[in-house]
Each structure stands twice: as C-alpha cells, then as structure tokens.
Amino acid sequence: MKRSRNFGSTGIKKYMLSMRNLLVALTFTATANAIAQIPGQSFPTPPVATITQTATGFDASLGSETLRVTVCADTIVHIVTRPQSSDAKPAQPWLLDNARPGAHFDFTQDAKRATLKTAAITVSLALDKGNLTFATAAGKTFLREGNSVPRTYTPVTLNGQQTYHITDRFSPDQTEAIYGLGQHQSGLFNYRGATVELGQNNTDIAIPMLVSTNGYGVMWNTASLTTMDNRFPLELKLDSIAADGIDYFVLYGPEFDAVVHDYRSLTGHAPMLPRWSYGFIQSKDRYTSLDEINDIAARYRAEHIPIDTMVQDWFWWKNEGDPVFNANYHDVPADLAKLHAQHFHTMISTWGMMDPAAETYKKLDAEHLLLANAHVYDASSPHARDIYWQNLDGPLLAQGWDSFWLDSAEPEEYYPHLGDAILTTRTLAIGNGAAYTNIYPLLHNEGIQQNWRKTTDQKRVFLLTRSAFLGSQRVGGTVWSGDVYSSFWGLMHQVAGGLNYALSGLPYWTTDIGGYWPTMDLNSPEYQELYLRWFQFGTFNPVFRSHGHRPHNEMWTYPLVEPALINFDKLRYRMMPYIYSLAWQVSSTDYTLMRPLPMDFRSDPITWNDATQFMFGPALMVNPVLEAGATSRRVYLPRVSLDKPTTWYDFWTGEKLPGGKHIEAPAPLERIPLYIRAGSILPLGPEEEYADEKPNGPIELRIYPGADGSFTLYSDEGDNYNYERGAHATTTLTWSDADRTLTIATRQGTYPNMPRQTTFHIILVRPTHGTGESETAITDKTVTYTGSRIEITMK
After folding, report:
1. 123 pLDDT band (50/70/90 cuts)?
2. pLDDT band, very low/low/confident/very high, at 496 (cuts 50, 70, 90)
3. Within its chain, how far is the Cα of 72 from the centroid?
4. Considering 446, 483, 569, 700, which one is annotated as catalytic?
C-alpha cells in the first residue's frame, strides 16, 4: 500500500528548510559546489559550467568538478576527474612515457549531451546527470556510469596529508561477466556479485585491471588500496582510499586479446624470457648448501629426468640483505660452474626485507631509505634501488647466479608474514603510501631488471616474484601464487587465481606444485595423488616449477606416482617448440599463453563461469583434475559460435568429438583430459633432458584436420637480447583443410649459429596415430626444410 506524509503547510516549510540546511552542510563537507557529487543525493542536477573541445578530447566543468576525456587510440580513452580544478599530475610509473599518443575523433554537443567518437568507441557525457556512457562505433552501449551520483570525493587526511577517498559507480548489464583484478584466493572466476579488495599480500595480488565479456576493459589508474564492489547487481563500485581524483582508462577490444594488447601498450610489453626458464624448475624450502644442490642435480642427470633449474631458497645468507653466504657454502662461483657444466641454471632468493646487522641495511638506513618502522627498503626511491642492486643482487649475478627469486615483494614488513598492504600507513619517496599502497612489487622488480640490463645484455632477465602490479609484465618477471595450502581445495583455488591473473594482462604465472604448507602425510598415497594432479596442472602453466615446505621434494621422493611425473615432465619438454614459439607471440603481439576459455570462446556463455578448464596456447585445452580420487571429470567442449561448429580431438586417443556439449572425460591417475582444437598444428620436439639440448629438432608436426589452421615457429639464440635487434627467425606453417595441404613458408630472419636445415616429421592425427606424449613411431611424411617454401599434400 502506498503511504504518504501529510506535513501541512508549516511542516512542509520546516522540512524544506531542514533539507536545504542538510544539503549546504554536505556540500561544505565535500568541499564541492556540485550537489550531484554528494553521496546519497541525486538532486538538483549538476550545473554545467563549460564543455570545451580540446586537441585530444574534451573538458567539462560540472559545478566545481572537472572532467577530462582524452583519446589515446581508437580503442582507448582516458578519463580523469577532480573534485575541483587542479593541475596536479601525480607520478604514475606504471604507465609508459609514450602511453597516450592520441587518435582521430569527432566531437559534437547538443542540449543533452557532449559526444566524442573514435573509429571504435563513442563516449557520451549526459549534461543533466554528469555521467559517462561508453558505446561501440555502431552505438551499442558496453559500459556506463550510474545515473545517480556516479562519482564521489570525500576529503580525508592520511599520513598527515590531505587527499580524497574516491568512488566511481558503474551500472553493469544483467549478463556480463567480470574478470581480472590480479590474483585472489576466493576461488571465484567471474566476479559478478562479489567484493574484491586490491591490496598486496602473500597469495593475494592487486592489479586494478578488469575485463568484461561485453568486450571492454577498465584500468583503474591508481596504486591506492582499492575495492571492487558488485554485491548489488545493478551497481559496480570502484573505491580507493586516497587519490587526487578519479582516473581510469577504458579499453575496447572487443576480444580479450585486443584488450590485453591495449593494456600492455599503456604499461609495457613483456620481454622474452630465456629458453631454459620454460623447462622444469626444482625447488624446496630449503636446500641448505650448494653441495646438496649439486648432488640433487647430478641424480637428475644420471636418471635422465628432464630439468633445467635448481633453486636456492632463503637462509643461505650470514645476514639477510648481504651477499655473504653462511658456513655451509664454500666456493660459490666454483659450485655454480659445476652446475653450469651439467647444463643447469640457478636461481637464488633475495628479499626486500633485511636484517639490521646487514651492511646493506646500514647503508640504506644512513641515507634514510628504509620504510618507517620496518626492515624494508623504500623501492620507490631510485637511489635506494641502486644501493640494493650494488650491494646484494649485483654481486650475486657476478658470482654466476642466473636468476633471482624476489620473495616478499608485497612487501612483507617482517617475518612471519606481516605484509597486508603495509604501505598505507607510511610515507614513501614517491609520495603518500595511502596513494601508492600497491606499487612496491613493480618498482622493486624493475630496479633489479633495469640494473641487470645495464650490466649485461647477454643474459636475459628472469625474476620470480610473489607479487605484481600494473606494468610488472615489462620487467621479465614471473609471479607465483604464494604460500598456499597443500590440498585439493588449494589446487582448485590456484586455477581460478591464475586465470584471472592472465586476464589482468600479465602473461607469466606459476604455483608451488604440491602446495607450500603441508596438510597431510607427505608419504601417503593421498598426498602423492595431490602432488601428481598439481604437477599435471603445472605442466601447462607458463612457467613449470615445484616448491614446498617439505623435507624432500624431488620426483623420486614420490615413488607411487614417479613414472607419471616423469611422463608429464617429458611432455613439457616435447612441447618446447610450441611453448617457445608462443613466448615470442607474448613478446611480439601481446599474446597470452595460459588462456581462460572466454579469451577464445567469448560468444559461448557456457564458458563464462568455468575456472576449471583453459587453453594452453591456441591448440591445447587443459582440464586439470581437482578432486581427490577422481578417475573422470565433466568437461565442456566449447564452440566458437552457435553457427560455427568446433571439432575437438582427444590428445591421448585421437578420438574426434563435436563441440558445444559436455562429456564425461576419462581421467585415470596417470593422465588428465587434454583436447586439441581441429585446425591445430602442434609442433613437438624430440625428448630432451634440458631445454637447449636439441633446439634444432627434429620436430614432429601433428596436424588435427577438420578446419584450416596456422602456426608460426620461432627460434633464436635462447639467452641474450640480440633478438631485440632482429636476430631471430620465424617460419609460418599453414594447413588448408579443403585440399589437405601443409605449406611451410619461406623462413624469415636469421641469427648466429642458426641451423641450416630442420627435419619435420608430419603426422595427420587420427585414432591411435599421433597421440599421447611419446614420439609417433610411423610418420606420414618427412621433409628436410632448408628455409625455402615447401607444400606437402597429405592423403
């Protein structure tokens, strides 16, 4: 029943007066004249002072609020608002200096709205509400700010500085799915209906970049502690505790690869990692000497188990922060030389947190370059980053270490694990820690990368780190998911976390295979089953690495599953031509190697909520087993569109299956369901014991008929930066399904010591032929390729 109040004329006057006084008080509190900026108020309409076209977009004044729309590219617009006019330009080191070059646009204005159009995006400002709407060039809306009070600014004082707590409210549509935002441990894939805090912590990585199945991305352009709140279906809020105003980029694909490309064009492109870094990385918490590491390495080689890297975890030091080893270590350069002679590479753990007894700590403290009340250096200071390199990682690189494990990169305040967004209460060299809460991992990692590149260009940077931020993909880093539990619950949550990390625009990610914190008897069949299932998943991560807090962690310490572990390890190495070629696509075209299904099947809504399946490159669909005791699992075979059928092949049997349906896939303990999309060309190398053993092949080309396809093989020297100067080669393979013809195009490019010829074993996959991890015994055709075009017709 509808109810109303009857105030009478006197009551109405008193009510109106009280409301006017309330509005005045709220306006004063917000230090803004535009009542539309006050939370909870939707009237009166914001007065429009001016709308001005500029060379790069347009500016608007809404009461005291200023708004600027800048065109960065046909598919990228930049939105900056302030509660009052300001020329402040905060430091944003995650953005490239040349990130906003501009593009052609048309501008119009009428009594209701100001409109800007590029070749791909239409941006409209409603003059009565002050909210922005984003649409395609054809006029279909894909993103809009809320109609009622879209943006709010609340004055606050944090760390003794005046700033604003800011909020922007968007109105998502009823069906779109939201992804990205870094890596989180909720197990959620689609964040619709959820709240996500973006604050760095062990196992939780804050990347303020989201993407939608509507075909857009939003890069929330701040390092402040932020919350994405979509508890209410009609509202998606982005809320940050400290900023001069609201700042975000809208990126339109519509495909996710295009959105990721635009993100990296703003924040940096991923370099090539060394070829050996895509092989198996053996680690545990912890090896206590290089004698122990050398013994482990020698056994791997004696048993012919493929491996590339041995890792030295923490407490190798005399004092944390100095490159001085404890008494367990003897002649470190000589021991590293022994490992290199066996074709091993090495990684060593260093931390941003230091012991006050360390000389490095004392040097930083003397120059006031430590975070207040913490044993952590201020990575936002360029000088501090140089001191850190010169006194810790630089000397270690000179000893012969091949890569760094930058642990505790959130940062962590002190052990054990007090690292939850600790910068919010501190002042940094770059500014107020409340405004730069999440920036530490980018600058810490970048300090290492930049100094390394100044030292040598003959050894590629490879960094393993526990956290990341916008732009971290440009520093040669790989994130691992942190110190997670050894359980199927933990494994399942890593899959969702890794897929959202990929959709945040960062390509290199891995986990502790087997989990870090043990939750069961490590010798039990139950744990060894978990370890194998995690290992199977890890085989198809961008970086393949085992680690954990356990006394032993080598493959032979899991005897119940060791044969299956070795088979998947061998499969990883057989895939090296495929993986390394896709790594080139990551660097050259902003590709993503570990691909949530909506990246390739966005038009198939069944894929939108599935965090248990993913593509590994364009060919392989991976379906990890995430339940104890399972011998099968439900798998969805997606389709490109309703009117475009997609055919799949079982990797293990060669059976052909139609897309667009669910199946119950066999998953005995020794394998996981793997399916190959028709039209794929899958290059597999020979069995090898380390990534650089047989880079020249021969290469088995498995062709999965049923659709046209192509693949570009890539090769270079493997571990220097000569590729940046053109020292690399590509060979494009094309399959025409109609006439059953494989074309190997003329090779493009050259590099020192490039092989003069490559042998290709060509396999047309069918049931029981060209299946499984082993080399195919009988080839359909064999050709010797010398760099000139070849056409091969298959019958």
Report:
1. very high
2. very high
3. 23
4. 483
Concerning whether 562 is annotated as a catalytic residue, the answer is no
Catalytic one of 322, 378, 410, 780: 410
Helix (H, G, I), strand (E, B) or coil at 531: helix
Contact present, 660 and 638 (Cβ < 8 Å): yes
User: Which tokens belong to 508?
Assistant: 């290199």
> Torsions phi, psi of 353, nearest 5?
-90, 140
pLDDT tens for 425-477 read 999 999 999 999 999 999 999 999 999 999 999 999 999 999 999 999 999 99
Cα separation, 17 vs 26, whole angstroms: 14
What is the distance, to the nearest Å, from the Cα of residue 774 to the centroid of all Cα atoms in its chain?
A: 31
β-strand 544-546 against 280-282: which pairing, if any? Answer: parallel
Contacts of 476 (CB under 8 A, 6+ apart): 271, 273, 449, 460, 461, 462, 463
The pLDDT of residue 88: 80
589 Cβ neighbours under 8 A, 6+ residues apart: 261
| Residue 729 β-bridge partners | 715
Buried b or exposed e, range 316-339, using 16+ CB within 10 angstroms? bbeebbbbebeeebeebeebbeeb
**Active-site residue, 600 included:** no
Query: Reduced to 3 DSSP states, what percent helix, strand and coil does the chain have, rounded to the nearest 5?
Result: 25, 30, 45
Least confident of 194-198, 230-234, 641-645, 759-763: 641-645
Contact 308, 601 (CB under 8 A): no
Task: Report the percent of the chain where pLDDT is more than 70.
Answer: 93
Half-sphere CA count of 662, side-chain side, radius 13 A: 9
Q: What are phi and psi of 132, to 5 degrees?
A: -105, 145
Structure tokens at 749: 């490019």
Identify whether 483 is a catalytic site residue.
yes
* Distance in angstroms (rounded) separating the CA atoms of residues 404 and 448: 9
pLDDT-based confidence at residue 202 (cuts at 50, 70, 90):
very high
Which amino acid belongs to residue 120?
A
For residues 624 and 612, is the Cβ–Cβ distance under 8 A?
yes
Cα separation, 164 vs 82, in Å, equals 10
- Residue 612 backbone dihedrals phi, psi, to 5 degrees: -110, 0
Q: Is 768 exposed, middle or buried (0-12, 13-18, 19+ CB in 10 A)?
A: exposed
Among candidate residues 322, 407, 446, 700, the one labeled active-site is 407
At 774, the pLDDT band (50, 70, 90 cuts) reads: very high
